[in-house]
Amino acid sequence: MMSTPDISDKFSELPFLVGFNSYGAKSVFEGEVVTVVCPNDNSFAKELISQKGNGKILFIDGNASKAVALLGDNLAQQALDNCWSGIVVNGMVRDVEILKTIPFPIYARGSCPKKSNKNNAGNINLDVCIDGVDIKPTFWAYGDENGILISPTKLEL
């Protein structure tokens, strides 16, 4: 994959996200987007991660909450095993020292030691807006440590 600066130079109209930290041992990703809204509860993220990812990118929108971690080492490993191509968490992760050893792209706002609630709160495949950027299921995401680009279609790179 081209770097996000090179993609941005070629497709300057694409919106982008910044301010996400890389936590996985791999930092580059691209793929079709799947969204899940997780209000301090990762029940639906866990449900999606347990399914085959088919090379897609999971956007977990936790509304940038710092109250709980929405992803830890077990779910990250399961996402890798189930062929997801990466996870972006608009919120917190935990088990950072282990996430760094998993060869899988994980981006999040920060880390938090507290585990997520498990009350089946949230929604799967809703349109979300993160930092003013609209992200819809079937959009494409391209990410590396420079930022995350969002496209309504797969780009010809």
From TrEMBL:
<keyword id="KW-0460">Magnesium</keyword>
<feature type="binding site">
    <location>
        <position position="94"/>
    </location>
    <ligand>
        <name>substrate</name>
    </ligand>
</feature>
<comment type="subunit">
    <text>Homotrimer.</text>
</comment>
<dbReference type="InterPro" id="IPR010203">
    <property type="entry name" value="RraA"/>
</dbReference>
<dbReference type="GO" id="GO:0008948">
    <property type="term" value="F:oxaloacetate decarboxylase activity"/>
</dbReference>
<comment type="similarity">
    <text>Belongs to the class II aldolase/RraA-like family.</text>
</comment>
<comment type="function">
    <text>Catalyzes the aldol cleavage of 4-hydroxy-4-methyl-2-oxoglutarate (HMG) into 2 molecules of pyruvate. Also contains a secondary oxaloacetate (OAA) decarboxylase activity due to the common pyruvate enolate transition state formed following C-C bond cleavage in the retro-aldol and decarboxylation reactions.</text>
</comment>
<dbReference type="GO" id="GO:0047443">
    <property type="term" value="F:4-hydroxy-4-methyl-2-oxoglutarate aldolase activity"/>
</dbReference>
<dbReference type="GO" id="GO:0046872">
    <property type="term" value="F:metal ion binding"/>
</dbReference>
<dbReference type="GO" id="GO:0008428">
    <property type="term" value="F:ribonuclease inhibitor activity"/>
</dbReference>
<dbReference type="GO" id="GO:0051252">
    <property type="term" value="P:regulation of RNA metabolic process"/>
</dbReference>
<keyword id="KW-0479">Metal-binding</keyword>
<dbReference type="InterPro" id="IPR005493">
    <property type="entry name" value="RraA/RraA-like"/>
</dbReference>
<feature type="binding site">
    <location>
        <begin position="72"/>
        <end position="75"/>
    </location>
    <ligand>
        <name>substrate</name>
    </ligand>
</feature>
<keyword id="KW-0456">Lyase</keyword>
<dbReference type="InterPro" id="IPR036704">
    <property type="entry name" value="RraA/RraA-like_sf"/>
</dbReference>
<protein>
    <recommendedName>
        <fullName>4-hydroxy-4-methyl-2-oxoglutarate aldolase</fullName>
        <ecNumber>4.1.1.112</ecNumber>
        <ecNumber>4.1.3.17</ecNumber>
    </recommendedName>
</protein>
<dbReference type="Pfam" id="PF03737">
    <property type="entry name" value="RraA-like"/>
</dbReference>
<feature type="binding site">
    <location>
        <position position="95"/>
    </location>
    <ligand>
        <name>Mg(2+)</name>
    </ligand>
</feature>
